Amino acid sequence: MSTKRIVVVSAGLSVPSSTRLLADMLADAASRAVNARGVEVEVEHIDLRGLAHALTDNLLTGFPSAELKKAIDAVHRADGVIAVTPVFSASYSGLFKTFFDVLETGVLDGKPVLAAATAGTARHSLVIEHALRPLFAYLHAIVVPTGVFAATEDFAAAGTGAEGDLQKRVERAAAELAALLGSPTGATGAAPAVAQRRLVEDEFESPTDFATLLKRASDGPPEY
Question: Which CATH superfamily, name and number, covers 3-219?
Fold first, then answer.
């Protein structure tokens, strides 16, 4: 049986944290959705709160600590990412942004990402569309269609069965992430496999030599 790796990045600052709570809900739902496709799943949590000093040092020195490098490597190896941030000043938190700033170029290329956010009021519910989705699009990730925003009242109402409640949004987003992660070959009802990601280092595996590039340029554009 194939195995998919999901890394959950949570930028909550308090303990306990509503951001971590939402991250756990999404991780559990994604695990169930992937398992339902006949695929095993490994989930790894990265709490950015404990990496705050290491992230600042990395910005100043350009070198990650051993703990931060472990987190970065986990994202690199992941088949999918769940990224959850609290809302600060109508956008993602600085801690959240800093983590994705220190990732090497290409780490998220073609990688499925489920974006989610928490806030004290529903007035910030568009943060996923105006802040998170553009960020991950710029990083060349594949963002699932459903973003999950949770305000304080959403957690209070979770599990009540009301139409459009938090748990339903969580399950829908998780199912979309599972679909992007794909199903094992030959599985009944399997979704089409996601095209193989190409990372930056892949582009240097078989480079075109300079003489060939010059010849192509001198030959002019192809005729159709």
Answer: Flavodoxin domain (3.40.50.360)
pLDDT per position as a tens digit, 107-126: 999 999 999 999 988 889 99
Structural tokens at position 76: 């690199």
Taking the complete model, does pTM exceed 0.85, yes or no?
no
pLDDT at 213: 67
